[in-house]
Amino acid sequence: MSFSAGCLAAPLALLLFANPAQSASSTKAPAIKAPAKAPAKAPAKAAPAGGAASATHGPTTSSPTTTSHGPTTTTPHGPTTTPRVSTTTPRTPQTPLRKTPGPSGPVARDHRVSQTRNGSVDRRSDGRIATVHDSRRGMDVHHGLDGNRRVMVERGDHSRIYAERGGHGYVQRPYSFHGHEYARRSYYYNGRYYNNYYGRYYYHGLYLNPYYPAFYFGPAYYGWAYNPWVAPVPYAWGWGGAPWFGFYGSYFTPYPVYPSAAFWLTDYIVANSLQAAYQANAQAQANAQAAAMQGATPLSPETKQLIADEVRNQIAIENTEAKAPNGEPDPASSSIQRLLTDGHSHVFVAGADLDVVDAAGNECALSEGDAIQLSPGQTAPDATAANLTVLAGKGGKECPRGDTVSVQLADLQEMQNHMRETIDQGMQELQQKQGQGGLPAAPVSAQAAPVPSAMAAAAPPPPPQSEVAAQINQQSQEADAAEKEAAGGPAAPAAPADSASFAAPAAPAATVNIGIGQSIDDVTAALGPPVTTVNLGAKKIYVYKNMKVIFLNGKVSDVQ
Question: pLDDT of 486-507, one tens digit each?
């Protein structure tokens, strides 16, 4: 089966400019047409009083990685059509979200599920444990086909911890904005600490967490990123000597030239995903992956074109979202609800390793950087999963090209989150690099600094990095105890499932001195990554929990 640009129907939204080849000196923002209207549909039903059951890998709990981002969309089909859930709503069973610990959808045909005194155990045909569900701890532990272990814990207040081997993961805390529930995830990956922001909405009997940016660009910049550039340009990424690039050389080939930002962002998304996959494989000591790559089905030019089309769709959605009143997003317009109901095909790039089950009942893996396609009209109104077709994979235990796999809607939402998060990160980098390294200069009107979103600004201060790392490590230890008990070992004390706190408070932070003339590296070494970065050209503002550090030409000029 071949795929071409013509396989994808018209974009979700069109940004049409009076003069696409706008010069860099132009300051007038071109007119933007609203996104195409999605088919009319009945509003999503309200959550049942007793909660809606969700289907994942048997046990239930609720569920990067990039820079922080946040909210509201003006939709062509009117105001929000999906009921919001306030922070006072009783807890309902949750489906694991991004980087879910268990397989997505039905249990594979050769798995055996048995009950334990605390929950259940899912074993593969060789007897090894695939998933442990511990209802006493509110925990799911999954051993993926890639050799990694993933732990997910969710409390009754919708706070959540996700942990991988090596101390990586995130801590999610809910908060309220305009009477609706949102969440901030504090991520800790490969020594990097950052925060992203998410909504929460009810769809098909599930509560999903769509990503919303922490800041929005101006309409002129979205238009410059959406439309073709005056002429295609080459760009040197500097990946030539990178180990990950050599490792995935048979799978991924960057474009020789870029006719628009969408193609540049396509390579940016794929490259970031493959870098993360390479690091994860190295940490899990997946040495067999090198041999498996011989069976890879590379990202074809047709598949990359489909990804570029989807990038433009997501840019159009965010441009519309940026205009929403009161800074509150509409999930019906910005989430997978729209992608499942607009009558078009959509392509996703896996942002996390995920075990799924194919149409024959076999378990296979999707890994970061794989491409899968959603076809229109094949999701029933009450479905909690969707069938997608694999367009490109890396061989071995991964799902082969052309395979049809069942992906839980919660996992599909996280795939869209990954794309939006990485697009935002790439657009921020592209705005900083425009006019350099062969990239065309953006119009003056497109160079304005992004504006923080009201939704993200309403979040409480994020926890310190040390506290997040400690909570992730604590849950990894709890998972060790849960697995030991599931295997028949002695019981170990467990934290209450509805505990209001995941871990003891972090130790007091050491005194840090920030002075005039220090470099950006000096400040980030002392304070860590900022919560938000505002780039004003020569002037940059790093926003931390209790202060703002202002740089001029790379040096501290003021601290507020």
Answer: 887 554 444 444 443 444 333 3
Report residue 388 CA to chain centroid gap.
Answer: 18
What SS3 class is residue 298? coil
Pairing of strands 451-452, 354-358: unpaired
CA atoms within 13 A on the CB side of 54: 28
Eight-state DSSP code of residue 537 = T
Chain centroid, CA 445 distance in Å: 29
Residue 94 has pLDDT above 60, yes or no: no
- The predicted pLDDT at position 282 comes to 66
Q: Which residue has the tokens 């999906």?
A: 82
Q: How far is CA 559 from CA 34, 384, 547, 550, in A?
A: 41, 49, 7, 6
Q: What is the dihedral of CA 31, 438, 317, 73, to 10 degrees?
A: -70
Nearest 5 degrees, angle CA 420-CA 425-CA 426? 95
What is the rounded CA–CA span in Å between residue 283 and residue 147? 10
CA dist., res. 397 & res. 390, Å (int) = 13
Tokens at 29, concatenated: 């923002």
pLDDT (tens digit per residue) in 281-306: 665 444 445 555 667 899 999 999 99
Tokens matching residue 478: 């709890």
Under 8 Å between Cβ of 114 and 250: no
